[in-house]
Specification:
The protein is mainly alpha-helical. The protein has one domain. It contains seven helices and no strands. The protein has helices at residues 2-13, 19-29, 37-59, 67-88, 97-118, 126-162, 166-191. The termini are far apart.
């Protein structure tokens, strides 16, 4: 039974409907290099805590958020994350600000997950909630590993083309990725205006 909900979580994350989630993961990962894995893990964990809280609250019926508003706010969080990447210019402090921002945005994304998960309840919610969250996390791990690999290759390619150091390549890659992801999220947000 729990395996079914794990698969629902994985399938949801790897489906086309989760494009906004994939863009958000790309925005989060864009400012990190492999050596920054601990801080990147803190950011992703904060996002997980945020979306788990909202997912549980919505699933328990303690919170109701209009789905049109949530679907609009999700790409808006991606735009803000992309802007934050550009503002930081590739400097990634090991402080609490980025994890706090990711946790806050996780609250919004969790309300979006709740719509998917809410359709599956036919009894208790603990098992579906746990399974779905495990599936989302497994899917995120695969996607983040892929994104980090691609970004590492991009650093190498940009560094080769620019004939400059790794830090310059990372800054250029961060700018390009953030503009592309932020631009795509703006298009998605414009298509989801709730009014």
């Amino acid at each position: 039974m729990i395996a079914d909900f794990i698969m629902v979580g994985v399938r949801h994350l790897l489906s086309f409907e989760a494009l906004d989630h994939l863009l958000f993961l790309a925005a989060l990962a864009a400012s990190y290099r492999l050596r920054d894995w601990r801080h990147g893990l803190a950011v992703v964990s904060a996002f997980t805590v945020g979306h788990s809280i909202t997912l549980a609250l919505v699933a328990l019926g303690l919170l109701a958020v209009p789905s049109a508003l949530v679907e609009f706010l999700i790409p808006c969080t991606i735009v803000v994350a992309a802007i934050e990447n550009l503002w930081s210019r590739g400097t990634r402090p090991a402080g609490w600000q980025r994890p706090a921002l990711a946790g806050l945005f996780g609250l919004v994304h969790g309300a979006g997950f709740a719509t998917t998960l809410g359709q599956l309840f036919d009894g208790g919610i603990a098992l579906p909630l746990l399974g779905f969250n495990i599936g989302i996390e497994l899917g995120q791990a695969v996607i983040l590993a892929t994104i980090v690999s691609v970004l590492t290759l991009a650093d190498w390619a940009i560094g080769t083309v620019l004939a400059s150091g790794r830090d310059d390549a990372t800054r250029w890659r961060l700018r390009l990725t953030s503009v592309a992801v932020g631009g795509a999220a703006l298009v998605v947000a414009a298509g989801r205006l709730p009014w």
